From TrEMBL:
It comes from the Bacteria. This is UDP-glucose 6-dehydrogenase. Signal peptide: none annotated. It comes from Prauserella oleivorans. InterPro entries: 6-PGluconate_DH-like_C_sf (IPR008927), NAD(P)-bd_dom_sf (IPR036291), UDP-Glc/GDP-Man (IPR017476), UDP-Glc/GDP-Man_DH_C (IPR014027), UDP-Glc/GDP-Man_DH_C_sf (IPR036220), UDP-Glc/GDP-Man_DH_dimer (IPR014026), UDP-Glc/GDP-Man_DH_N (IPR001732), UDPglc_DH_bac (IPR028357). NCBIfam families: NDP-sugDHase (TIGR03026).
């Protein structure tokens, strides 16, 4: 029987809340602490503030069973055997990770934690952060990066591709490993610096892969090839893999952009020019500009046409399908660029609650309202339900039946039959 640990989780966001609920599911006694009083009050009332499959059931069930508690006071972690830090590490000055929230929590925890407590860092933090935290706390600090994806958070946590444990001391590493005793998946023991870097290296490689495909899509257009068949061929090679080969409006979300910036900053600090990564980031901005040019062309009938006063309907605003997260969403970056040229934007997203307040887009709760009188309809997020829309009806509602599919989600022939002139990426 694997041992049950008294676990403290600091931060109740995507990573913290998912970890807390899943660790309770694995049989541990979990106390989750966040400074956000509103969020904690919601969680105590059984409401989960983010949209993640299975999370509400786990939170409600384990709270009721007494295995999961929520609070705002870090002092409640005094008897924890293991504390997981799941604090935000957004972009700070010069592109580096801002460790403000992290340091503020450490400042309190150093007076609170028991002398035999082990601390694990789940946040994505620059190399050396764990060792620095160990000095501040006077406790062993293990790097245990998290690889879950938003929209799949619970499933990814409970079925990890790998569990990475970067530690100096065996005793501390063993305690973190005990946390996951009930989970399958390869364990990788290493030093803290390698674990910290492995997390950035993974996210940066995913970004690189998508930037490569976005540039490839451009080349396909120039030479008259179809990117779907090109990446279909590539993906069948096990060494390349089929995942992360879909062209889109650029990669975004709360992590890939900030983590590529932070890794570039780390390289810079050592005097290294990480040129291939720097260009993947630059390619992401080029991709947004290309998408905007394509929309301008579709909506005005000319490459350099003016978008002033032109009505454009947007389908999908979140940074990818299956989430309600708008942080660093490429769809919003495209919207901002269109709005800056004077376009009038109406947007529909199945993941967003009505009444969400967006700077550049009037949010509507029906795709027909986004299509109405639009000079172009632009699909920006790959929600699968968009495939089932009544495209003939939407075509009739638009002013000019032009459709820019920035995710290559739809069958060009089908939407053409519905009456649309279709633009995809690289096809
Ligand atoms: N979102 C994701 O899919 C993943 C995120 N990560 C990493 O995990 C870390 C956390 O990310 P998210 O969970 O997305 O962030 P988040 O923004 O969703 O949640 C962070 C939580 O920490 C709380 N907080 C801030 N300061 C605090 C303090 N001093 N004490 C206690 N709580 C405090 C905030 O109120 C918030 O609820 C980041 O380093 C991120 O890069 C890693 C893997 C996946
Ligand atoms: O560190 C993190 O926070 C997490 O960041 C990403 O997860 P996530 O931010 O949920 O988003 P992804 O699914 O990776 O998508 C990132 C972006 O790339 C885009 N993308 C992805 C794949 C693809 O083929 N094409 C493409 O444009 C998505 O639309 C999205 O904008 C990683 O996939 C997780 O492993 C990691 O734990």
């Amino acid at each position: 029987m694997p041992e049950s640990l008294r676990v403290g989780v600091v931060g109740a966001g995507y990573v913290g809340l998912t970890s807390a609920a899943c660790l309770a599911e694995l049989g541990h006694a979990v106390s989750c602490v966040d400074v956000d009083e509103t969020k904690i009050a919601m969680l105590r009332a059984g409401e989960v503030p983010i949209s993640e499959p299975r999370l509400p059931e786990l939170v409600a069930g384990h709270q009721e069973a007494g295995r999961l508690t929520f609070g705002t006071d870090l002092a409640s972690l005094a008897d924890a055997e293991l504390v997981l830090l799941c604090l935000p590490t957004p972009t700070g000055r010069g592109g580096t990770a801002d460790l403000g929230a992290f340091d503020s929590a450490l400042g309190t925890l150093r007076h609170v934690l028991a002398p035999d407590c082990v601390v694990a860092i789940k946040s994505t933090v620059p190399v050396g952060t764990g060792d620095r935290a160990a000095r501040v706390l006077g406790l062993p600090v293990v790097s245990n990066p998290e690889f879950l994806r938003e929209g799949h958070a619970v499933a990814d946590f409970l079925h990890p591709d790998r569990i990475v444990i970067g530690a100096h001391e065996e005793r501390a590493a063993a305690r973190v490993e005990a946390l996951y005793a009930r989970l399958d998946g390869p364990r990788l023991r290493t030093d803290p610096a390698s674990a910290e870097l492995a997390k950035y290296a993974s996210n940066a490689f995913l970004a690189l892969k998508v930037s490569y495909v976005n540039e490839l899509a451009e080349l396909c257009e120039r030479v008259g090839a179809d990117v779907t068949d090109v990446v279909g061929t590539m993906g069948l090679d096990d060494r390349i893999g089929a995942a992360f080969l879909s062209p889109g409006p650029g990669w975004g979300g709360s992590c890939l952009p900030k983590d590529t910036r932070a890794l570039l900053h780390t390289a810079e600090e050592t005097g290294m020019d990480f040129a291939v990564l720097a260009d993947a980031v630059a390619a992401n901005a080029r991709q947004r500009d290309r998408v905007v040019a394509k929309i301008r062309h579709a909506a005005t009938g000319s490459r350099g046409g003016s978008l002033a006063g032109v009505r454009i309907g947007l389908l999908g605003l979140t940074f990818k399908a299956g989430t309600d997260d708008l942080r660093d969403s490429p769809a919003l970056a495209v919207a901002a660029a269109l709005a800056a040229e004077g376009a009038l934007l109406t947007g529909y997203d199945p993941g967003l609650a009505r009444g969400a307040d967006l700077a550049d887009v009037q949010l509507v709760d029906d795709p027909a309202l986004a299509a109405k009188d639009a000079a172009a309809l632009v699909l920006l997020t790959e929600w699968p339900q968009f495939r089932e829309l009544n495209w003939s009806q939407l075509a009739q509602l638009t002013e000019r039946a032009c459709l820019v599919d920035c995710r290559n989600l739809l069958h060009p022939a089908e939407v053409a039959d519905a009456g649309f002139t279709y633009w995809g990426l690289g096809r």
